[in-house]
Amino acid sequence: MEKYFSEQPRDFLAVATPGAGKTTFALSVAAELLGRRLIDRVTVVAPTEHLKTQWAQAAERAGIPIDPTYAAGKGRTSQDYVGIAVTYAGVAVNPLAMRIRTERFKTLVILDEVHHAGDALSWGEGVREAFEPAARRLALTGTPFRSDVNPIPFVSYAPGPDGIPRSAADFTYGYSHALADHVVRPVLFLAYSGEMSWRTRAGDEVAARLGEPLTKDLTNQALRTALDPEGSWIPSVLAAADKRLSEVRRHVPDAGGLVIATDQDSARSYAKTLRKITGEAATVVLSDEKAASKKISAFAADDSRWMVAVRMVSEGVDVPRLAVGVWATTTSTPLFFAQAVGRFVRARTRGEIASIFLPSVPRLLSFASEMEVERDHVLGRKVTDEDDIFAAEDDLLAQANASESASSEEQSLSFEAIGSEARFDHVLYDGATFGHEGEVQVGSEEEMDFLGIPGLLEPGQMRDLLRQRQSDRARKQKPAPAAATPAPSVEQVSTHEQLAVLRRELNGLVAAWFHRTGQAHGITHAALRKECGGPAAAIANAEQLRARIDRVREWAARKSG
């Protein structure tokens, strides 16, 4: 506020982490400008219909009545309103009508999540045409970086050390600053891996471990197998997340959880699974439902446990009681990750902690470890001489390689999930990793060491507790003196426990083979299946698993390796 009113700029870009109070700042600026008669009207541009309503409600509390139902062809609004709220798509439909309205009054334009103005060429051109005459423009974003080179309207770009233009914010308040000021919650990421098996379009069966070094295509297919509602991975992770939510609700009674799904069918299936786990219906929010905004508002106001959404709660939507999240989507861009995690970091009471369950995918884990890194929008490489003449083509190639996935129709034709099994991997907190040695079964005491962490802790207390639980378990896992009574053999335990023991032994041997030869786990599993026969390890019987264990040991015994 001090910087804004000391400089009195026509354009101002404020970059602040989700939950830091960008809406409050913008409305405070608007109220002050109205009071000084520097502006007559306010126009808010938001990414979604729901956010228009949310802005109108917040503005009403600030004494600025805003019409969220305004459309470009509507013309005038009631004299009771001081401003309007529209979407970027709505502006692009009829930018000339918006320009005429902007010219008629001294207007402050608030561009919420302004990076969306670059989503499509027509959107950026429409925003620029509509609001070029505005008296003041206040741009807000929590994620100023984009993966393309479309310039964002009314944002200044300055050359970086490498000469490439980057967005230049007038004021920045990052996650690390907000965390130090106790404005946002710290985030505990719980990563889950496990064995996946699927069938390709050619009929080949592939087995791989989620989280191991794989090609991009294999990583995507392993992730999609994990998220398949018919498999075992996602129900196990949802059950673990619900246990975590129960622990958090002991200290924060109204804490809620959110599952971010890839598509509508998956969202409905996850909701059915949650109902079986909790005995309570989950709120399902789909983007094409007319009642989606009302469902979100109702969930924000009640104390129900779970909401499942596709993309409706990706950014800007304010549900402060969200404390536990499950990443169950194949979308994995840094922009979407920052937006989604932003739904959980809004602080209410000091000591609240957000817990987010992630698949052990290297890309997602790197985003989690870099939460405090501040990014800018980079416009692309600069062509400086003839040797750099192919820079534009290189950028296009990079964008093509960075594409997330093929269409859902193409994916469904080229892929069929067979089976999946979840394993607790580790916890990521404050850039550090905490976990237990060996494979940790879902539902085990080792897993509960982390699921049972109290819901209210200061950041320093959280770090100390994680270290303590890791070291305590390590001491317990030290080999004890030989007991008089022998431990039960594999044959003496139940079938599912017997299979789990054999899979764990096989996975341990495959991992040892990887360290010895560098051969990926999936390739080793495929080679074992080829030599010994049978289905993927996740659904193989005890005899087939023993045969593969013996075969790996034979390989290891060979002098040549």
| Helix-residue proportion | 40-55%
Radius of gyration: 27 Å
Distance from N terminus to C terminus (CA atoms, Å) equals: 68 Å
Strand tally, please?
19
Task: Briefly note the structural class of the backbone.
Answer: alpha/beta
Bulk shape: elongated
List keywords for this structure.
561 residues, 7-stranded parallel sheet, alpha/beta, 10-stranded mixed sheet, single chain, 20 helices, elongated
Description:
The chain is an alpha/beta fold. Helices cover 41% and strands 19% of the residues. The chain contains 20 helices and 19 strands. The protein has helices spanning 2-7, 22-35, 49-61, 88-93, 95-104, 121-131, 175-180, 216-226, 233-251, 264-278, 292-301, 334-341, 362-369, 391-401, 408-413, 445-451, 459-476, 495-517, 521-532, 542-557; strands at residues 11-16, 41-46, 66-67, 83-87, 107-111, 136-141, 157-159, 165-167, 171-173, 187-200, 205-210, 256-261, 283-285, 306-309, 322-328, 354-359, 415-429, 432-434, 440-441. The strands form three sheets. Strands 10, 11, 12, 13, 14, 15, 16, 17, 18 and 19 form a ten-stranded mixed beta sheet that branches. Strand 13 (283-285), helix 11 (292-301) and strand 14 form a beta-alpha-beta unit. Helix 19 crosses helix 20 (542-557).
